[in-house]
Amino acid sequence: MSGTHEEAHNIFPQIYFGSLLAAGLLMFLLHRRWGALPKPGERFYDAIILVLGLWCLGGLLIDAFAHIGGRVDDTFFTEWHAVWYSGATAYGAYIFYAVMPEGGVGEMLRRPFGVLSDVAPEHRPGVWGIIVFFISGFGDMIWHETLGVESNLDILLSPTHIGLFAGLILSVTGPFWSAWADPTSGQNGLRSQALPIFGLGAAWCVVLLMVRYSHPWIDGIGEFCYTQGYDYICWNNDYNEALGIGMRSFLLQAALTAGILLMFLRRWEPAPGALAVLLGFHALGAWVYAEFDRDVAVMGIAWALLVEALRFMWAKGWRASFVATAVALQAVVLQVALFISGPRGTWWEGTNLHMAPFGWTVHATFGAVVLCAFVGVMATTLAFPPTLPEMSESEQA
Questions:
Q1: pTM beyond 0.90
Q2: What is the DSSP letter of 214?
Q3: Cβ atoms of 199 and 278 closer than 8 Å
């Protein structure tokens, strides 16, 4: 639906104002039922923030697909932006209400930074996130209208888009940091861990878009495969170049996966189903950014279920082994899926045995999995470092 400039202007206000009207009506009904909408630290505040953040994330996913697929107009006022920015406006309006001091708008205008500093530290990411988002969004409108609309990888490098990504990450992780500061959070099963899981998972989707240019699932095997006579369309005739591109992608995703998992595991003992839901966000993001490739969705779901099935390793205290296995499985799932759906076989080039599915040597094919696992081990060691030895009084003297 690339449409024309005029069509975009016609659709934008309908989506933007229509969705805000529906959201405003819902908030009005909640206000009447509760007497007041919750403010930071009060019941349901984090849930509302999460819903609004997911609204923004949904807009991002739609807009990202439009840019990736070339379904964009020559204007800022597209239907994709209408979904994204209506969510941001609703989020901003609620934050404005939530942080309003007792002195009202006048006090906020007199000491805006003082009002923001009064917000508890665990609630500041959500507040500052929407501020960063709005500043970047206003800049994005000017950028689009004066310098044109980005497409393909350019959407990841536009300065205003980077600001939007940063603001959205801060916004959607608001409930995660709020739950982190609550000593009682996550103690009663999956339901009690839902807010931090969804907040962290939503942030993962945003980060995936930022690094989609180096994701072996999204880029496709043509980026890094090497072949002699196979049916694959490999873009690199130089083996070392193909291997280098592939390994950089695998290692970047291994580090990102280990970081996301350990951010959750460092704070909470995963409830049954928690890891599957968290990795489900990876499946969702990769599926959208791969232009709704069904195979990518299947791989994402399979990986999530495999990691969930191995949760017993974490429960037994095998921290490094669990994270290493979970990270390495991201590479294994891709290898197995391509091996099943693509050509199979091996061939020799001099003394090197190359094998499907990547066409890498047998050393690199298996070594890539081992190296990804090693990234998981290193990340776990950083997250759970050995206890520092205590010096005796005589040693201190």
A1: no
A2: G
A3: no
